[in-house]
Amino acid sequence: GVLTLCGTLDAQDQPVLISACNDNSVRLYDLPS
User: Fold this and answer.
1) What is the pLDDT along the chain (33 residues), one digit of tens a residue?
2) Residue ranges of the domains in the chain?
């Protein structure tokens, strides 16, 4: 499952969603702006 969700902006000021999962993986999702 997902442990943490964090929204931020990347270097081009595009919104991205970062999720940390309990299988020790971190996933990045580009959000449509």
Assistant:
1) 889 999 999 899 999 999 999 999 999 999 887
2) 1-33
